[in-house]
Write a structure and sequence with these properties.
The protein contains two helices and 20 strands. It has 373 residues and is α+β, with helices and mostly antiparallel strands. The chain is elongated and about 115 Å long. Pfam families: N_methyl, PilW.
Length: 373
């Protein structure tokens, strides 16, 4: 017997049964859960990958910022830089730094327990070998070197003063050894005197770039310089270590070194999330001009040491946030502080989830190689 049209219409209007509805709900829940898990896992992968990339960038940018200035350091002073410390002339290295792992680290010029190093550089004005006594198009001193015209100690007689910068640091150099002059003041040219350079150290007995010759010599060069200090310190915004660069001044610090950070100029934040900063100094002790034969030192005192030819900088940096495991419950067990140079971590150091990127660069010091000529 065939079904009546009424029954056929009723059957076509019948909805889903409770069992069918429950099956659909369960299947949908499984699909949604799987999709959610996949999205969360993908998000963790993206987060962890971004964190790793950030740590690579932070370490690379920090190290290259340092090395860019290391290449310029020490011009005119391959045989040492004379500085007045405690009222006495001492011959120093134009590049030096403290080994933080021999005791405490160094934040600014103050010891701290983080084990990081610091680095001091004496940098010439980029125009120091330019045209003497020239001005920029805006009428400002160009920073070019000017020649000394009369031998002796005390105030320097020069043939012009337009390129010098009153109140700034300068160096007087014979291109082998140099003398650091602070708070330079200039006496303008007049018909009887081309010009004079006055400076704070001129009253110190015997102070010059060549004490063994009796003082400055005619033909020496005077040009502006900067003292630059790299170190790690806590960034108050993030609460984490960061690389800073401070301008320096001639004043003995708490560690007995001849320079201090210039408190009048705020330090520059170079790069955030830099956890460790290590410097090693390479010496050509055998005078072989062979980098494979260098002797390496962790830390270098300010007092002059012959044969410095290379600097190796190692920077460890992280990203801003820790990485997580696949359940986003715990940090990754391999993410913990690492050993760098002679800075070793305690055996029981705890993982914190911050991926570390180590960036190491070594550079020869072209401005100090002239010492072997």
């Amino acid at each position: 017997m065939s079904m009546s049209p009424f029954r056929r219409r009723a059957a076509s209007r019948r909805g889903m049964t409770l069992l069918e509805t429950m099956i659909v709900v369960v299947l949908a829940a499984i699909v949604i859960a799987a999709a959610t898990a996949l999205l969360l896992a993908g998000g963790r992968v993206v987060h962890n990958t971004e964190h790793t990339a950030d740590s690579h960038d932070n370490s690379r940018i920090a190290a290259e910022s340092i090395m860019n200035l290391v290449r310029q350091a020490g011009a005119g002073a391959p045989g040492g830089l004379w500085v007045v410390r405690g009222g006495t002339p001492v011959r120093t290295n134009p590049i030096f730094g403290r080994d933080g792992t021999t005791g405490a680290g160094t934040t600014g010029n103050i010891a701290n327990p983080d084990g990081s190093d610091d680095l001091w550089l004496v940098l010439p004005d980029p125009n120091y070998m330019g045209e003497p006594c020239s001005l920029t198009p805006g009428g400002q001193p160009s920073g070019a070197a000017v020649p000394v015209t009369k031998a002796g100690t005390g105030a320097l007689n020069v043939n012009c003063v337009a390129s010098l910068r009153p109140g700034a640091l300068h160096v007087a150099s014979n291109m082998t050894t140099a003398a650091l002059l602070s708070n330079v003041q200039v006496v303008p040219e007049n018909p009887s005197n081309p010009g004079q350079v006055l400076y704070d150290e001129q009253g110190v007995s015997g102070f010059s770039d060549a004490p063994e010759k009796g003082g400055f010599q005619s033909g020496d060069w005077v040009y502006p310089v900067r003292l630059v200090h790299f170190y790690l310190a806590i960034n108050p915004t993030t609460g984490r270590n960061a690389l800073y660069r401070a301008e320096g001044r001639v004043a003995q610090d708490a560690l007995g070194r001849p320079y201090s950070d210039d408190g009048a100029t705020p330090p520059l934040l170079v790069q955030d999330y830099v956890e460790d900063f290590q410097v090693s100094f390479g010496f050509d002790t055998k005078n072989l001009a062979d980098p494979d034969q260098y002797t390496w030192s962790h830390g270098l005192a300010p007092e002059f040491a012959a044969g410095l030819r290379s600097v190796r900088v190692s920077v460890v940096a992280t990203g801003s946030n820790p990485r997580r495991d696949s359940q986003s419950v715990a940090v990754l067990s391999a993410d913990k502080p690492m050993d760098v140079e002679n800075h070793t971590q305690p055996p029981a150091v705890v993982a914190d989830g911050f991926f570390r990127s180590l960036y190491t660069r070594r550079v020869e010091l072209p401005n100090l190689a002239a010492a072997s000529l």
